[in-house]
Amino acid sequence: MGLLRHIEAVNRWDPARFRPLVLGERRVGRIRHDFAPLLAAFPAVFAVETDRVRLRPDPAEPEALTAAVALATRRLVADGAIPNWRGEWFDVVAGDDEQALFRVDRGALPRLGMRAAGVHLNGYVRRPDGIHLWIARRSPDKKLDPDKLDNMVAGGIGAGHGPWSTLLKEGEEEAALPADLLARAHPAGIATYVMEREDGLRDDLLYLYDLEMPEDVVPRPNDGEIADFRLLPATDVLALVRDTDRIKFNVNVTLIDFFVRHGILRPGDPDYVAICRGLRR
Amino acid sequence: MGLLRHIEAVNRWDPARFRPLVLGERRVGRIRHDFAPLLAAFPAVFAVETDRVRLRPDPAEPEALTAAVALATRRLVADGAIPNWRGEWFDVVAGDDEQALFRVDRGALPRLGMRAAGVHLNGYVRRPDGIHLWIARRSPDKKLDPDKLDNMVAGGIGAGHGPWSTLLKEGEEEAALPADLLARAHPAGIATYVMEREDGLRDDLLYLYDLEMPEDVVPRPNDGEIADFRLLPATDVLALVRDTDRIKFNVNVTLIDFFVRHGILRPGDPDYVAICRGLRR
């Protein structure tokens, strides 16, 4: 089945089907053409033009902007045009900028084609027979990607938070890891992609972290999001990524990045150069 | 001065100034428009057309192709149109393909805009106060980039060789490292760039390797290419990359990649996302 298919899958979208969502002159999202008419029902919030959708409220008043967009998107959730209200604020940014402009509910991000940032932590153990990875299995009753395999710790970065504080919070909540161990994690780069899904776009920026785990620490499910954890040889995880769809769509990509950085995937492997290039396109 | 300037510097070239060099229907290089007329002097080898230059010899006969191009480029060296004959064969490939099509002398690669592959090895020591890097200083009488700082080991991949055998050879020749130590190096990804220089294009694919060095092994100059080696705190090397031009142009990039992978450069550092994106563009 191959590795490159996962990188291609998360980079599949058709720009011709979307128009930019702008605040002032800055792009903050992308609206699918067939969704734009639904935004026209809120003329005080969205100005729907043929080649773009403009946010009407004053950019200099982020609180008013947040409230206006929340009002419109709540109505769209009630109408079934946005799948669900998550009750988690996310910061809205322009392009790769990190400056928060206002806030929207996490559930509205795909429909508005807005950037979502998250953290993914690879927990690994060095053994004489090679690197092993702690792999989580998502709870079978999770709404998104139930039962799929996942990184040891992963989570979205809520409004007002950065990657590091999110990592510490999720590591405790999801895997019951002690704070002094999590503090030894180190950043290892990013993965980015834009992917078209049923409900709009996933425009994701994932901050990647590595944590070498001592043999005697075992992550355990703590908040019902994760069913169990297993420690697997990295080469077995590579085979799962290559040959199955057991792993959550974007975790395939964070794992491939780990395999490249740690030399588990090597020059001479099929598509090595294309895989390395694809990881940060 | 900043880090991003190094990534921008190695990605600076103007496609409008070049036309493709093709073998059959495959692009194997890029010819600057003002250099194309010089190739017209060898009509049995190069067909100079307005929108491309075609290699005339039969692609199915790589030895004849190699000999024909060598004859032409040797003449261009004699005429001063190609700076020098290096006496090192490099494999010619199409795009990211690894399949060798024929061979040219290393000195002719920039003028023909052909891909050059190399290996760069980061040698590092883990200490309680953080990662330290072995940094080489190039010999002051080296023709290219004399006296500049360099990775512990680096070298071009000659025809018929792969990255791994090149790493073992250069590690012994340049730094007198024992083979059993070099065997513990692991691949960690690639860096690629296309850069316009006086003498044409550098279209480089660098295979990156990391090697954790024991405290008691000291690399030493072995073949006159390197003047000396110094072990520096990685944060000091980061400052050299950021604030000076002491380091060889492309080694700035391989070091930035190392800083990202090992968390010496962190989210929140200026341009973090742009730097990560730029490394593999």
Describe the overall structure.
The structure is a homodimer. The first copy, chain A, has helices spanning about 5-10, 35-40, 60-80, 110, 165-175, 180, 235-245, 250-260, 270-280; strands at about 20-25, 25-30, 45-50, 55, 90, 100-105, 115-125, 130-140, 150, 155, 185-195, 200-210, 225-235. Chain A is α+β, with helices and mostly antiparallel strands and about 280 residues long. Chain A has two domains: about 5-10 and about 115-280, Alpha-Beta Complex (Nucleoside Triphosphate Pyrophosphohydrolase); about 15-110, Transcription Regulator spoIIAA (2-Layer Sandwich). In chain A, strands 7, 8, 9, 10, 11, 12 and 13 form a seven-stranded mixed sheet that branches. In chain A, strands 2-1-4-3 form a four-stranded mixed sheet. The first copy, chain A, has a two-stranded antiparallel ribbon with strand order 5-6. In chain A, helix 1 crosses helix 8 (about 250-260) and helix 7 (about 235-245) crosses helix 8 (about 250-260). The longest helix of chain A has 17 residues, at about 60-80. Chain A is globular, with a radius of gyration of 20 Å. The mean pLDDT of chain A is about 95. Chains A and B meet through strand 11, strand 12 and helix 9 of A and strand 11, strand 12 and helix 9 of B.
